[in-house]
Every structure is written in C-alpha cells, then in structure tokens.
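In the design runs reported in the main text, the only information available to the sequence generator was the tokenized backbone. The following block is the verbatim input for one such run; it is reproduced so that readers can re-run the procedure and compare outputs position by position.
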C-alpha cells in the first residue's frame, strides 16, 4: 500500500518548487510514462480475466 500511496502523491500535479525547467519537464515525462504504464497494466488484467 505504501507504493500506491507514493505513486498517487507523485502523480498529483502539485507545483514543483525550486527546480530548473529541465527537471520539471522530466517530471512531466515521468508522470506521463507512469500513467501509460498503469493503463497498460489495467488493460492486460482485463484481457486476462
């Protein structure tokens, strides 16, 4: 459950403070990739069951 809580807190689109624009864009790219990964896992679980 701790992992899900950390993922949820990371995916909440809170404003990043004190970081450069490169780091902010990398965080956005990471959030998009995590969301697409979770969607793919959900689709796989639905197709298997």
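Verbatim output:
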């Amino acid at each position: 459950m701790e992992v899900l809580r950390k993922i949820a807190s990371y995916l909440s689109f809170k404003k990043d403070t004190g970081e450069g624009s490169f780091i902010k864009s990398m965080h956005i790219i990471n959030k998009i990739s995590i969301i697409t990964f979770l969607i793919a896992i959900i689709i796989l679980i639905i197709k298997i069951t």
